[in-house]
Amino acid sequence: MILTLKLSGLAFELNASINPPVDDLEGVRNEAMKNVGFLDVFHYGFGYMGLLTGPYYRYRTYWDHLYRPFSKVVDPWPFTLYKLKQVACFLVLFFIMDYYYPTRYILTEEYAERSFLYRHFYMYPTFVLFRARMYIGMSLAECGCQMAGLGAYPTRCKPIQGLGPKDYKTTEELCKTPEKLENEELDFETVYNMNVWKLEKCNSTRTAMKIWNNCVQYWFGVYIYKRLPIKSMRAVLTLLLSAIWHGWSAGYVVCFCQIPLFMLSEDIFIKFYQQTENSIAKKLWYLLGWYEKTTCMAYLGMSFLLLDFKENLVYYKLVHFSGHIIALVLYIVALYCKLYIWKKPTGDKIKDK
């Protein structure tokens, strides 16, 4: 899966380096893109760092790791120890949740005989189990990259996940005086798959999707979403391609392609949240958005875990398609609230935009 992103991403990088923008702040045409040979591609594709679980990183990041001085200057231990402490907590949580709320329990007769409320709310602790597993895997993958020095860049070069330094010209300038790098603050933002606490606290499915497996989301956003000619179909087609990238199981398609159903109401609620000044009302809109995001991820996440279409159908019937009903009810509520709460931008604000 990661190899697919790396090789196709490298093709995009090489193509972009032929016709870079005039200012080229991101360093599209850089030294890494000169004389890329077969062995360079092979070592980039099959390097152990991120090969199985990610993170996805560009060829330029791989090249900088080898030929730039940052990996030799940075001290990875403080970053890695912080991650390992998180992993220890996630491991405890994983074993507890796996003992009390195993995923396959929902296919048993005992689960079918439980009350509707129990069957409906079972998805929340099950998704906690899934998240803990993903957090452990991705955090350990990040630790591997950090200990190798991959993805280390000066903070003032504005590195972002997947891309690397947004201000690559500053990166090149700093490399001319490597002795001064010891006074620079460096980080591994480029290879951070997931900001766990931001993901848990956000009140938007869109935000959660961008934070979840962030480096992979960067690839889909830059090379798929922004390049699709039909803007109205970008989100649906990107989600469909993401499902196919994960595998050919029906559960992936069922999971990803139903996300827009929850976004119908979420987009409206987020605007209510942003335009509300009253602290209590703002907190209520925040909680509603957080509930919808959590329900969306937990409910559709069951499809991601079960994968088989028949098993998905069995589960949805057992919970009486409650997640779909919640999404539709919230959309109707959002449309109703829109008639009375929506604040249209004034003429001055429209001109400013």
UniProtKB/TrEMBL annotation:
<keyword id="KW-0472">Membrane</keyword>
<dbReference type="GO" id="GO:0030258">
    <property type="term" value="P:lipid modification"/>
</dbReference>
<dbReference type="InterPro" id="IPR049941">
    <property type="entry name" value="LPLAT_7/PORCN-like"/>
</dbReference>
<keyword id="KW-0808">Transferase</keyword>
<dbReference type="GO" id="GO:0071617">
    <property type="term" value="F:lysophospholipid acyltransferase activity"/>
</dbReference>
<dbReference type="InterPro" id="IPR004299">
    <property type="entry name" value="MBOAT_fam"/>
</dbReference>
<feature type="transmembrane region" description="Helical">
    <location>
        <begin position="318"/>
        <end position="341"/>
    </location>
</feature>
<dbReference type="Pfam" id="PF03062">
    <property type="entry name" value="MBOAT"/>
</dbReference>
<comment type="similarity">
    <text>Belongs to the membrane-bound acyltransferase family.</text>
</comment>
<comment type="pathway">
    <text>Phospholipid metabolism.</text>
</comment>
<keyword id="KW-0012">Acyltransferase</keyword>
<protein>
    <recommendedName>
        <fullName>Lysophospholipid acyltransferase 7</fullName>
    </recommendedName>
</protein>
<feature type="transmembrane region" description="Helical">
    <location>
        <begin position="284"/>
        <end position="306"/>
    </location>
</feature>
<feature type="transmembrane region" description="Helical">
    <location>
        <begin position="236"/>
        <end position="264"/>
    </location>
</feature>
<keyword id="KW-0812">Transmembrane</keyword>
<dbReference type="GO" id="GO:0006661">
    <property type="term" value="P:phosphatidylinositol biosynthetic process"/>
</dbReference>
<comment type="pathway">
    <text>Lipid metabolism; phospholipid metabolism.</text>
</comment>
<dbReference type="GO" id="GO:0016020">
    <property type="term" value="C:membrane"/>
</dbReference>
<dbReference type="GO" id="GO:0044233">
    <property type="term" value="C:mitochondria-associated endoplasmic reticulum membrane contact site"/>
</dbReference>
<keyword id="KW-1133">Transmembrane helix</keyword>
